[in-house]
Amino acid sequence: MRINQHYVIADAYKQYVERYSKKESGRRIWQPGMELTKLKFCQINKAYFAKLSERLLSGHNIKIPNLGYFCVIKHKCSYTNKKVDFGYLKETGKIAYHTNLHSDGWFARFKWSKIGGVRNASLYKFKPTRRNARALSAIMQTKDGHKQFFT
């Protein structure tokens, strides 16, 4: 059985409010120095994640406490299990294979190493946003773009 639950910044804000404020006589009382509006909280988190994404795409590893390590790794394409180019097959009717010549035969992906304290780690997965996946693809398609990532 698979349960798909997505947590977004707004869910994190609810937890933030519960942790750093309390409700007294219909008003929310914040701990000193911890008051944030939902808009400001979202702006701070989006800026933080944008910076993390930028660092990942520049070839750095990132360690987040209690979550593990995030990085971009590259692999050499396997020539024994070639991937069929279905776009070319549909256009011409001839079978052709992806060779990744634009990146010297390498492909890259985001990796989450769950070593570091995640309970029930096999229940979680990391899926990069479309923007980050496309940015990684654009980097790999540049000349020598694959050289900044680890194998």
What does this structure look like?
It is a single chain. The chain is 34% helix and 19% strand. The protein is an alpha+beta fold and 151 residues long. The protein has a domain at 59-148. The strands form 2 sheets. Strands 3-4-5 form a 3-stranded antiparallel beta sheet, covered by helices on one side. A hairpin with a 2-residue loop joins β1 and β2 (27-30). The two termini are 34 Å apart. The mean pLDDT is 85.
Output the keywords:
34% helix; two-stranded antiparallel ribbon; elongated; three-stranded antiparallel beta sheet; 5 strands; single chain; alpha+beta
Task: Sum this structure up briefly.
This protein is of the alpha+beta class and 151 residues long.
Let me know the number of strands.
Answer: 5
Overall outline: elongated
**Radius of gyration of CA atoms, rounded to a whole number:** 21 Å
Q: In DSSP terms, counting alpha (H) and pi (I) runs of 4 or more, how many helices? A: 4
- Fraction of helical residues: 25-40%
Uncertain spans: none
Structural class: alpha+beta
End-to-end distance, in Å? 34 Å
Could you give the order of strands across the largest sheet?
Answer: 3-4-5
Note the beta-strand portion: 15-25%
- What is the typical, i.e. mean, pLDDT? 85
How would you characterize the largest beta sheet? 3 strands, antiparallel
- Run of helices and strands: HEEHEEHEH
